[in-house]
Amino acid sequence: MNATAEVTIVPEDVEVSAKAKRRQFTAKYKLEVLRKADACNQPGEIGALLRSEGLYSSHLTTWRQARERGELAGLAPRARGRKAVPPNPLEKKVIELERQNARLTARAERAEALVEVQKKVALLLGTPFENEKS
Fold first, then answer.
1. Averages of pLDDT over each 10 residues, the chain, 134 residues
2. Which of 10, 29, 37, 58 lies at a 20 to 30 A Cα distance from 2?
């Protein structure tokens, strides 16, 4: 071996954070772990499960109690923001009827204007115009 060979040592980042962060488990994860724990039927299986997941037995106890009270079902993630309002079935009909009303009103106004023009033309030509309303 060569005595001039140098070994470079890279220091690991072992800095401890100033404030510890608590672990947070989702309701889905809790229910999955509880399902796996309930399936265990041999001695030591629950302990192996807890070690593999990095959990304590107190986690199982607390989560089982929460499941019995129905709290885990309420912790499922929900969509954020406003809830979708179901469309009113009459709203479409109202809009359609308003359009039809506007169309018929415009048609009636054109017909009245046409009658007025016919009256004026009859008056200019000197022919009597029969008025049904008078």
1. 64 70 86 91 91 92 89 70 85 93 96 92 80 54
2. 10
